[in-house]
TrEMBL record, chain A:
GO molecular function terms noted in the UniProt entry: oxidoreductase activity
Protein name stated in the entry: Cytochrome c oxidase subunit 4B
Topology within the bilayer: Multi-pass membrane protein
Broadest EC class assigned to this enzyme: oxidoreductase
Membrane-spanning residues: 30-49, 55-76, 88-109
UniProtKB/TrEMBL annotation, chain B:
Enzyme Commission number, as recorded: 1.9.3.1
Any single GO BP term: aerobic electron transport chain
UniProt GO MF annotations: cytochrome-c oxidase activity; oxidoreductase activity
InterPro entries to which the protein is assigned, alphabetical: Cyt_c/ubiquinol_Oxase_su3, Cyt_c_oxidase-like_su3, Cyt_c_oxidase_su3-like_sf, Cyt_c_oxidase_su3_a-hlx, Ubiquinol_oxase_su3_dom
UniProt key word Transcription regulation: no
Family to which this protein belongs: Belongs to the cytochrome c oxidase subunit 3 family.
Transmembrane segments: 28-51, 71-91, 103-121, 141-166, 186-206
The protein's name: Cytochrome c oxidase subunit 3
PANTHER family: CYTOCHROME C OXIDASE SUBUNIT 3 (PTHR11403:SF9), CYTOCHROME C OXIDASE SUBUNIT III (PTHR11403)
Cellular localisation: Cell membrane
Gene this chain is encoded by: ctaE
Organism whose genome encodes this protein: Pseudoneobacillus rhizosphaerae
GO cellular component, one term: plasma membrane
Location of the Heme-copper oxidase subunit III family profile domain: 1-207
């Protein structure tokens, strides 16, 4: 938890501690960025190699979902405390969105 | 803590984006807005999926004839990197380093502008080389509405960040503007979230048919 403040009574010590925490968090951010780049590369290569459509479509969508989870929980800090309401808003949006996509992509089958 | 309080390195709070009541409200309200944006983009994706390759006759180009992987890859890298640079900007904001925050926001803006340039080139190419326009087919309408809406979000995000940078250039960081920068960076990340699905669903899935 990067926003945790120890109460040592010495503000200078607290600031040093916070800076250190921020720095550690920034390292995690760079790691998740590298993973996101890696997932993107896999997705582009999978399409470039031309595997079967039935394999590629679900596979690259899965990669996209993983990448978006990284983006939301690390870059947008949803892993931090105090994001209960944002999660509610976002997942409500995702639910409505998923139903919409499902409805539109099944209605064209008939 | 008050928004107009003069802050120093020592007094700067750990979570400046939520230190005042106004900041807390802004944070909550913005996430509500992002929930709404999710629904908006999902409906555009749904429309695109239903109308993909729906063209009136065989003279029209389909997704697999149009898209160019290297160009989309370049655009993706630019936008993804700009997401990281805006994380760097917020890292410096939390450490009360105004100059470095401005520098990283500047880099973010340049990368975003690069992305927008590529997208304008791409649309121009489709219109002139392939006669794939907004009104040429249902496929064209759905494609340009989805990608165009995203492009408009990028343009708006750039204007927003530039305005914040210019407006606060002489002020330095305080608890009044720190939440504004934070919320703008959330918006920028959200644009990247949408792009991840656009490059996957529109371009990559378009290439495989």
């Amino acid at each position: 938890m990067a926003n945790h403040q120890p109460t040592s009574g010495n503000p200078r010590v607290d600031i040093e501690y916070r800076r250190k925490k921020n720095k550690e968090e920034m390292k995690h951010q760079v790691t998740s960025f590298s993973l996101m780049i890696f997932l993107t590369l896999i997705a582009f290569f999978a399409v470039g190699y031309g595997y079967s459509h039935w394999f590629i479509a679900p596979f690259i969508i899965l990669l996209a979902v993983i990448q978006v989870i990284f983006q939301l929980y690390y870059f947008m800090h949803m892993s931090h405390k105090g994001h209960e309401a944002p999660s509610l808003f976002l997942y409500s949006g995702v639910t409505v969105g998923a139903i919409t996509v499902l409805a539109f992509s099944t209605i064209i089958w008939w | 803590m008050h928004a107009d309080e003069k802050m120093t390195y020592e007094t700067w709070p750990a979570a400046p984006e939520k230190a005042t009541l106004e900041a807390k409200n802004k944070f909550l309200g913005f996430w509500l807005f992002l929930g709404g944006e999710t629904v908006l983009f999902a409906s555009l994706f749904a429309t695109y999926l239903a109308l993909k390759d729906k063209v009136p006759n065989s003279e029209h180009y389909l997704a697999k004839d149009l898209f160019d992987l290297p160009l989309v890859f370049m655009a993706t890298m630019l936008l993804l990197t700009s997401s990281l640079t805006s994380v760097y900007a917020m890292y410096h904001m939390k450490n009360f380093d105004f100059k470095k925050m401005q520098l990283w926001l500047g880099i973010t803006v340049l990368l975003g502008a690069g992305f927008l340039g590529l997208e304008i080139y791409e649309f121009n190419h489709y219109v002139h080389e392939y006669h794939h326009t907004f009104t040429s087919s249902a496929f064209g309408s759905a494609f340009y509405t989805l990608t165009g809406f995203h492009g408009a979000h990028v343009a708006f995000g750039l204007a927003w960040i530039i305005t914040l940078m210019v407006r606060n250039s002489g002020r330095g960081l305080d608890l009044y503007n720190a939440p504004k920068f934070y919320v703008a960076s959330l918006y920028w990340h959200f644009i990247d979230v949408v792009w991840v699905f656009i490059f996957t669903v529109v371009y990559l899935m378009g290439m495989v048919g």
